[in-house]
């Protein structure tokens, strides 16, 4: 005969909603930034007209009016490079950087030994055309000309592909975590079957045979758990935690922290549950352990 016990209701889902919204916004921003960087690797171009310098990079086009240009020059060397924000991979640098020789500078660059610095008031831009001297001459003469970045339009390098992989993995983990946090409190239940306990979480069920359980208790451990891996949002706890007052090698499947039903297994693991009717659950479990 199977008995099913349901967890106590979470105290609040405000934290879950806030985290979901924040995580989704962060993912969208990261994916847009990554997409723009990848596009920059293929479409970067510099165009000089009698009125302006137009720089195409990724999803944006920067226009620098020639009337506002105060100086165009090339540094003899570059040292102390620091990225403030933006992309910095082999063969592609876009965003805000700082060098000892230039100070703060916005780069639309590939090969830095071709760097041309353009001063516009208090702002400074760095371009790396395939022919730096020709670009400088076109700016001086206000002549119409188009230049490709040094080395050709940069290819998506291995380092850029690493960034893609990291973002995709992070997106997958975030989607998994948000899905778990959304489904967990509705799907969670504890089933006492003929041979053992089944903890249904909405994803893969956790099964514990009665022969594995050494003892069971209701407890309110002192302190709070530290997450090793899993989800800990508001009053939702799923995964592995460190909490010496509760027991070693702790796994939580809970909608609150106290009181807990603690299962101490012969293997040295501890499992924490929060059935709403905790005393009745413990009594039913103990009867099956006899």
Structure description:
There is one protein chain. The protein has about 290 residues and is an alpha+beta fold. It has helices at about 15-45, 130-140, 160-185, 280-290; strands at about 5, 45-50, 50-55, 60-65, 70-75, 80-90, 90-100, 105-110, 115-120, 125, 145, 190, 195-200, 205-210, 215-220, 225-235, 235-245, 245-255, 260-265, 270-275. α1 packs antiparallel against α3. It is rod-shaped, with a radius of gyration of 30 Å.
Features:
single chain, 290 residues, alpha+beta, PH-domain like, 6-stranded mixed beta sheet, 4 helices, 28% helix
Q: Order the strands across the largest sheet as they lie in space.
A: 5-9-10-8-7-6
The number of helical runs is: 4
Q: What spatial form do the alpha-carbon principal axes imply?
A: rod-shaped
Q: What's the gyration radius in Å?
A: 30 Å
Strand fraction equals 35-45%
Q: Structural class, from helix and strand content? A: alpha+beta
Give start-end ranges of low-pLDDT stretches: 12-16
Let me know the number of strands: 20
| Assembly state | single chain
CATH hierarchy: architecture of the largest domain: Roll
Largest sheet report: 6 strands, mixed
- Write down the secondary-structure element order: EHEEEEEEEEEHEHEEEEEEEEEH
CATH superfamily of the largest domain: Pleckstrin-homology domain (PH domain)/Phosphotyrosine-binding domain (PTB)
Report the average pLDDT across residues: 84
Task: Count the domains.
Answer: 2
Q: Alpha-carbon distance between the termini?
A: 16 Å
- CATH class wording of the largest domain: Mainly Beta
């Amino acid at each position: 005969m199977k008995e099913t016990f349901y967890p106590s209701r979470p105290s609040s889902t405000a934290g879950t909603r806030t985290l979901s919204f924040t995580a989704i916004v962060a993912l969208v921003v990261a994916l847009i930034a990554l997409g723009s960087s990848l596009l920059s690797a293929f479409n970067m171009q510099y165009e000089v007209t009698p009125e302006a310098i137009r720089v195409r990079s990724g999803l944006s086009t920067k226009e620098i009016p020639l009337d506002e240009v105060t100086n165009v020059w090339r540094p003899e060397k570059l040292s102390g490079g620091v990225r403030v924000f933006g992309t910095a991979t082999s063969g592609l640098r876009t965003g805000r950087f700082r060098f000892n020789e230039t100070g703060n500078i916005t780069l639309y660059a590939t090969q830095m030994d071709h760097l041309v610095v353009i001063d516009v008031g208090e702002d400074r831009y760095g371009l790396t055309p395939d022919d730096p001297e020709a670009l400088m001459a076109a700016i001086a003469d206000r002549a119409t000309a188009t230049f490709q970045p040094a080395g050709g339009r940069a290819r998506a390098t291995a380092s850029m592909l690493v960034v893609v992989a990291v973002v995709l993995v992070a997106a997958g983990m975030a989607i998994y975590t948000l899905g778990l946090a959304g489904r967990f409190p509705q799907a969670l239940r504890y089933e006492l079957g003929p041979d053992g306990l089944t903890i249904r979480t909405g994803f893969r069920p956790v099964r514990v045979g009665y022969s594995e359980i050494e003892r069971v208790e209701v407890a309110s451990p002192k302190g709070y758990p530290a997450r090793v891996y899993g989800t800990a949002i508001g009053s939702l706890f799923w995964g592995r935690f460190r909490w010496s007052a509760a027991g070693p090698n702790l796994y939580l499947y809970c909608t609150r922290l106290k009181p807990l039903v603690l299962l101490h297994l012969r293997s040295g693991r501890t499992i924490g549950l929060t059935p709403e009717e905790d005393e009745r659950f413990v009594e039913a479990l103990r009867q099956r352990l006899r």
